[in-house]
Write a structure and sequence with these properties.
Acylphosphatase-like_dom_sf; 5-stranded mixed beta sheet; 156 residues; globular; alpha+beta; 5 strands; BLUF domain-containing protein; Alpha-Beta Plaits; FAD binding; single chain; blue light photoreceptor activity; BLUF_domain; 5 helices
């Protein structure tokens, strides 16, 4: 039996506590700014990612070449909007699960059912989120968004 072929394509999942404004309008503005900035950086680094914001927690899946993912994570680690950063998973992957440089999924009335079904918040509060739960929620939110835009058939 041959050993598995190594790839430089990796997936990193981390979670952190967010240092963002408490009032909803300011918080939404801050998340929008993070999204715009991250999209540009990720496009330049050929990174795809999905950020989930659940209460005062951030969970992100970052995909790309090993060095680019490492540099991106180092930049995030230095960002004062994050504290108590912890890596949940770091592994090689054969292909990407996400289609855009940066997508944000925030609990809202439109996504409430997906967040409730995932049950991520209690895991975050205990500091024990599971990579499979995070990944499943992110791919579900991505699929839901693409379906609403009528483009889900392009990525099957």
């Amino acid at each position: 039996m041959r050993p598995a072929k190594r790839t430089s394509l990796v997936n990193l999942i981390y979670f952190s506590r967010l240092n963002l404004a408490a009032d909803a309008p300011s918080r939404a503005r801050q998340i929008s700014e993070i999204t715009k900035h991250a999209q540009k950086k990720n496009e330049f680094s050929v990174i795809t990612s999905f950020l989930i914001v659940e209460g005062s927690f951030a969970v992100q899946i970052i995909e790309g070449e090993r060095m680019s993912v490492n540099e991106t994570f180092q930049r995030i680690s230095a960002d004062t909007r994050h504290r108590d950063l912890k890596i949940v998973e770091w592994r090689e992957i054969n292909k990407r699960a996400f289609v855009t440089s940066f997508t944000t999924g925030v609990r809202s009335s439109a996504t409430e059912i997906h967040f409730n079904k995932a049950g991520l918040l209690p895991m975050l509060q205990r500091g024990t989120p599971k990579s499979s739960t995070i990944h499943n929620l992110a791919t579900t939110l991505q699929q839901d968004t693409m379906s609403k835009q009528g483009i889900d058939h392009l990525f099957v």
